[in-house]
Amino acid sequence: MITRFMTTVAALAVTAGTAAADYTLTVLHTNDFHARFEPISKYDSGCSTEDNAEGKCFGGSARLVSAIAEARARTNNSILVDGGDQFQGTLFYTYYKGKLAAEMMNKMGYDAMTVGNHEFDDGPEVLRGFMDAVDFPVLMSNADVSGEELLADKLAKSTVIERGGEKLGLIGLTPQNTDELASPGPNIIFTDPVDAVQGEVDKLTAEGVNKIIVLSHSGYRIDQLVAEKTTGVDIIVGGHTNTLLSNTNERAEGPYPTMVGSTAIVSAYAYGKFLGELNVTFDDDGNITEATGEPIIMDAAVVEDEATVARITEAAAPLEEIRNKVVATTSEAIEGSRDVCRHMECAMGNLVADAMLDRVKDQGIQIALANSGGLRASIDAGDVTQGEVLTVLPFQNTLSTFFVSGATLKDALENGMGQFDDPENDGRFPQVAGMKYVVETGNSTGERVVEVMVDMNGTWEALDPEKMYGVVSNNYVRNGGDGYRMFRDAENAYDFGPDLADVTAEFLAANAPYQPYTDGRITLK
Predict the structure, then answer these.
(1) Shortest CA distance to 505 belongs to which of 392, 341, 350, 342?
(2) Distance between first and last Cα of the chain
(3) Residues of 170-201 as b/e, b for ≥16 C-beta within 10 angstroms?
(4) Whole-structure pTM over 0.90, yes or no?
(5) For 169-203, what is each residue's pLDDT tens digit?
(6) Mean pLDDT score of the chain, rounded to an integer?
(7) DSSP helix/strand/coil, 49
(8) What does 237-285 look like in DSSP terms, one character per residue?
(9) Is the peptide bond before 513 cis (omega within 30 degrees of 0)?
(10) What are the two backbone dihedrals, phi and then psi, of residue 208, each rounded to the nearest 5 degrees?
(11) How confident is the model at residue 20 (pLDDT cuts 50, 70, 90)?
C-alpha cells in the first residue's frame, strides 16, 4: 500500500451558504515522464534490478499502474491527465518512439494529455502516430495547425468529457517557443498562451461547461500568469519545468495546490517519480470551494504491478541491440578516466564539450562547459558502440542552454578549481569549448583563474565581465550541481534539450573516424 501524506490546504474560504449539491472530483496527474518506463534512481537516472529489489528505486510504469489503481479506489469520481513530454529521454523512446508510451497510457486509463514540446522532437509524423494509438484526446490550444495536414483534423484545442454526471472542459497548452525547442516543422504557428486559453474558456462556457481544467506544458511561471490573466479557469495541471509543488517536501517550489485567485495550480515534478492527487469540491456554479492534495512519491512502498513489470522487461529486450550498435569509429582511445579529466584538459572532455557546442551554436551560444564528474569512462580505439557512449554519459542528462554575464562565468570557473581546496570534490573541474583559460594553481580560492578568452565568431576575445554570453551545459550543472549554483539564476534557461549521450554519439558519427585531441584550451601553472 502507498504511504500517503495528505496535507489539507483550504484553497478558498466558503463565503456563501452550503451548495445544494456539491460536486467532488479527484484529479490524478503526471507530467514530463520522458520515457522512464523502468524504475529510476534518486538522481533520476537508471536504477539496477538489484537496487530496485533493495528498495532504492522510484517510479517506473509498474508502480504507476498500482498507484493509480489505489488512488481510484479512494474516490468514486476521478480523472487521470498528463501535462506533456511523455516522449524522449531513454532508449525506450529511441527504439519505440511513441508506441510504448501509448500502450502504457492506455493501460493506465488516461483521460487526456496536452502536447509537450518533446512530442514534436521527431516531427508531426510521430506525434500523429501516437495520437492514432491512444484512447484519449491529445490537446493543444495555442497553435494554428490548419496548415499541417497530419494534425489539422486530429489535434483539438479543447474537449469536453463527462464524469460523475458533470461536464468537464479540458484545454491543452504547449510552450509558445516550441518551434525553437523541437521540430514541429514549418506549418504550425504557435501563439500566446493567455489569449488561447481565454478563447477556449469562452467557447466552453458558452456551451454550458463551468468546470474547466487546463493541461499546461508551459512551466510554473507561465501557469501562474495564465491563472492571473484569464477568467474561468479552475485548475491548471502543469508541466515543462519539472516543478514539484508540495506541502511536505522541502524541495518544493511552492504549495500544492498553488492558488492564484480562484485557480488551483498543481505539478508533480517529472519522470514518474510522483503521482499528483488533487481533491477538489465545486459548488453548483462551478466554483471551487475546497482544493486539497499532495503528490504521492512512487517509492518502494508502492508495490509494482507484476504484469507491467513483465511487459516492460519484454520491451527492454531489443534495447540490448541498440546498446551494441556501432555508432562511430575512433582512430585512438579517447581518454576519459577520472584521474585525468578531473584534474586537467582531457580528450573526452573536449569531445563532449565540442559536441554540446556544435549542437546549439546556431542559438546564440558561444561556450560549452562540462563537469568532469559527468564523464565516467574512456572509449577504446576502433568501433564505438552506443553502449560505450552510455557508459561514459550514463546519467540521462539533457542539454541546458542559458545566458550569464562574464563575471558569472569567471565565478563558475573559479568554482571548478575547487579541487585544489577539496580533492574529494573534484568532479566540478570544467571541461570547455569555445573558451580557453589559464589557472595559477598556487593562488588562493577565487583568484586562480587569471586569464579567460572566448571565441567570438572566430576571434579570441578576453572575457568581458559585463557582457552576456550564451552557454550550454547539462541540466545537472545548470541547476547548481557540483557547486555551480551561480547558474541557477541564469537568464533564458532551458534545461530540457536532447540527451547528452545522444548528442555525443551523433557528433562522433558525423566526425568519424574521430581523432581524439587536446589543444591547450586549459592551462594549469
Answers:
(1) 392
(2) 59
(3) bbbbbbbebbebbebeeebebeebbebbbbbb
(4) no
(5) 999 999 998 886 778 989 999 999 999 999 999 99
(6) 91
(7) helix
(8) E--SS--BB-SS-TT-SB-SSEEETTEEEE-B-STTSEEEEEEEEE-TT
(9) yes
(10) 90, 10
(11) low
